[in-house]
Amino acid sequence: MSAKTLQYEAEGAQILLRGIMDKSGQNLLACYQCRRCAAGCPVGEETGVTPDRLIRLILLGDREEALNNLLVWKCVACYTCGTRCPNNIQTARITETLKQIAKEEHLEPLRPRIADFHSAFMKAAGHMGRFNEIEGMGIYEVKTAVKELKKGNVGAVIEEMKNQAKLGMKMMKKKRMHFKVDKVKNRTEIKALYRKAKAEKGA
């Protein structure tokens, strides 16, 4: 299958580019498409969009494609791209920014469960200053269960509970299930950062 031809949209290109560079802290203008990031991306082949192509979409002002592609939702933040990039461009920070923009604009995520996990992770991390598996997964499971129940998929909820119980038992046997609640010393600072971020979004 041939790839879509990229079209330059001058009117919105600069607005999109500047907005993403400001929020992500990445200099996308430094990308000269050497594709070293693409060679190391573990999900590029699966998503059909590699880090270099995502940057190209943004540079050309293709807002719709930049926000609606699987790389945004399936990026595992391994930072291989940034490690290989001669200009230290971290695509994970770009995909994170695009997730936030999609959420702010109430766009339907291509992978709703990934979006739910992302939301649960951020909420749990904001509570204790670091991610706690029990709290984070509890938030995630409740969120997904409520969605399935609204659809009338009771069977799906029961199946999910069984699968998670089996996984939990396996993790306990391998001593990988952590019940201890870890927290940072200065949680007030973390909460202040969250409040500041929310205030800046509303500005």
Quick rundown:
By secondary structure, the protein is an all-alpha fold. It is built from 12 helices and no strands. The chain has 2 domains: 10-104, no CATH class; 112-202, no CATH class.
Write structural notes for this entry.
By secondary structure, the chain is an all-alpha fold. It has two domains: 10-104, no CATH class; 112-202, no CATH class. Helices cover 66% and strands 0% of the residues. It has twelve helices and no strands. It is globular and about 50 Å long. The mean pLDDT is 89.
Distance between the termini: 43 Å
Computed CA radius of gyration, to the nearest angstrom:
19 Å
Mean pLDDT, as a whole number? 89
Large-scale geometry: globular
Low-confidence stretches: none
Overall structural domain count? 2
The run of helices and strands is: HHHHHHHHHHHH
Largest sheet composition: none
Strand residue percentage: under 5%
Computed structural class: mainly alpha
Count of separate DSSP helical elements:
12
The percentage helix is: 55-70%
The count of DSSP E runs of length 2 or more, i.e. the number of strands, is 0
